[in-house]
Amino acid sequence: MRLVDSHGHLQDPAFDADRDLVWQRAVAAGVGVVIPGYSEASSRDAVALAERWPTAWAAVGIHPHEAGEWSETCRRAIAEWARHPRVVAIGEIGLDYYRDLSPRPLQRAVFLEQLALARAAGLPVSVHSRDAEEDTLGCLGEVPEVAGVLHCFTGSERMARRLLDRGFYLSFAGPLTFRNGQHLRDIARWVPLDRVLVETDAPYMAPVPYRGRRNEPAWVVHTARVLAQVKNLPEKEVFDQIVANTHALFFRVGRTATAGGGD
Ligand SMILES: [Zn+2]
């Protein structure tokens, strides 16, 4: 693989008409994909796609917008999928105080439940955090042994440093390429190369030169290229390190392609 899109929702209805073509373009570009769920149904769909495509993997979890969906049945389903050999993370999970589509105490409770699931399964987490820096770090502090990535990082320099101190990876998406993304490029310049991932967050957040269009994994190349420019390093060196980072986080030693985590 030339690159891995660490967060692309290929199960999204936006791809219903041409999902296989989108996938073929990712393969042609040498891009593997981690497909995160955001609800119980979309997690199931992510697992199904990861079973079908050799360079796709799934994450399973309930997004804070869908926190109201949480139930014991849902918890059991996620715990069961967490043992699946193609499931590499619990996600996307987290807190969203910007849109506040679920009550904040419920968001925190569901986030903590899923962090506990990740710990039990020995899996990393893919975390969504918007306008919720303190509470996100507070929840992550409850499970110091759980590794993870802050997906579509658009936060402050202070948040970046605290996440790195916590052992997290930062994943950059389309906003890194936007004209108004200078503060992100300034952060990306100093974030250690061995702690960065890239992603599309497809179908959202398309990078320049596709901004505003439906995003797809093949386009993650544009974001990775900007990262290489910002760091003033050869493209291949940056791409290779991103793939190595993705392996280190999601395909860790001790968790092989056939052995899932325990309960
Ligand atoms: Zn997402």
- How many helices in DSSP terms? 9
- Gyration radius from CA atoms, angstroms: 17 Å
Average predicted confidence as pLDDT = 95
State the CATH architecture: Alpha-Beta Barrel
Question: CATH top level?
Answer: Alpha Beta
State the share of residues found in helices, binned by percent: 40-55%
Instruction: Output the CATH homologous superfamily.
Output: Metal-dependent hydrolases
What is the CATH topology?
TIM Barrel
Distance linking N and C termini: 31 Å
User: Main sheet?
Assistant: 8 strands, parallel
Low-confidence stretches: 256-263
Strand order of the largest sheet: 1-2-3-4-5-6-7-8
Number of strands: 8
Chemical compounds bound to the protein: zinc ion
Q: What attributes characterize this protein structure?
A:
263 residues; TIM Barrel; alpha/beta; binds zinc ion; 15% strand; 8 strands; 40% helix; 8-stranded parallel sheet; 9 helices; globular; single chain
How would you summarize this macromolecular structure in one to three sentences?
The chain has helices spanning about 20-30, 40-50, 70-80, 105-120, 135-140, 155-165, 180-190, 220-230, 235-250, and strands spanning about 5, 30-35, 55-60, 85-95, 125-130, 150, 170, 195-200.
